[in-house]
Amino acid sequence: MICNNTDMLKKAVEGVLTFDGNDVRVVDEKRLREERIDDLIRTAVFAPEEETRAAARWLIRRAGAAVGIRSASIQGLYEAMGRGEVSGFTVPAINIRALTYDTAQAVFRTAQASGAGAMIFEIARSEIDYTRQRPAEYTCAVTAAALKTGYRGPLFLQGDHFQVGAKKYAKDPEGEVKAVKDLIWEAIDAGFYNIDIDTSTLVNLTEATVRQQQRLNYGLAAEMTTMIRDLEPAGVTISVGGEIGEVGGKNSTVEELYAFMEGYLETLRKSGTGLKGISKISVQTGTTHGGIPLADGSVAKVKLDFDTLEKLSAAARKEYGLAGAVQHGASTLPDEAFDRFPATGTAEVHLATGFQNIVYDSPNFPPALRGQIYDYLKREAASERKEGDTEEQFFYKTRKKGIGPFKREMWDLPETIRTALGGELEAQFALLFRKLNVGNTIETVNRCVTPVDVPLPPPAGLA
User: Fold this and answer.
1) Are residues 147 and 109 in the same domain?
2) CB 5 within 8 Å of CB 49
3) Domain range for 151
């Protein structure tokens, strides 16, 4: 059920949530989980009026906080990793593009079964657009999934690849930087206390020295870090990530790491005394986002440079106290590759396209809906088809852009289908959590991270 106005919404939560000044208390958690949270999240996503959607989002976030489900920064854990006090696992950062509420439930079920707490839910700047999920909606879908499954623990929500696009920057530098800064502000307001700044697109390899090549990258990264420190809520130190090599480009080097960090820290010191810098560094070691599709639609095998990844992680920890290196574009790697990330000291690995592929390629996904989406792509994404692309290659590369326009149709799939898809996703999460060795990390997370209950004023419709 979708509540069409705030009066209907208030009626729906009677006996489940009670208003307490400018906050809410959960008076019947069992009914909230079994009867009302599905309605609340659907209202938060699909209610016709923004006022009603905002009210539902506020109720979900405050209900989560009331039972101990709070947005948090992973900073404390990463600082412990940087000091060498915590090691032996790699944190999965999971980008959810489709069926966010159902997919997040699969993650939480996996976490509960394995005792995992070290995991991040993230969404990239580009994904926000083509999946039609603003940060506030994404936060609520994940929080609602935690409430639905009974999960308890900090929620690490992350802005992934908050990227300054090179082409847009070349045409309008101020406008492009402002767009990223506005998104950072929006994300922090939504409870994203982990932000990955990506200005690596501006690295200029034609410059004479590595330091000069990285100058624009580290300068803007420091500028945005300063802004984040100004915006972070009281008691929260947002975990900020930097990036030295664009994913899909040339492999990163330790020399580039040093050049970036020295320039970044020097610039940051000029912005203010004692400003905390980044907690991790994203690097390029041979992957591409989504993988490279072959003519039959399968994905080409990738030769990942684990030696370089290990050297970069070790240098990042030893010289700068960072958690280590971050690997992007990993979800389409073969399963046997994931054991190597903890072994090489990789701090974090980003996973996205593989989960999208599970949904689209599942025998449980309705062929009729897949056909509708592909027909849409033939019309609306025809210009993206490269000469020589087979139909399989074209659909593989563009089908992510069918998720937003068909979001409602996916959410409206029968429960039996969504349950089956959730089971397939859960099996993959279980495999990844096992190989990344994040089982039994909830106690470590709770020891290193103390979530802050950040005040959230009620929207006008509930004030």
Assistant:
1) yes
2) yes
3) 75-358+417-448
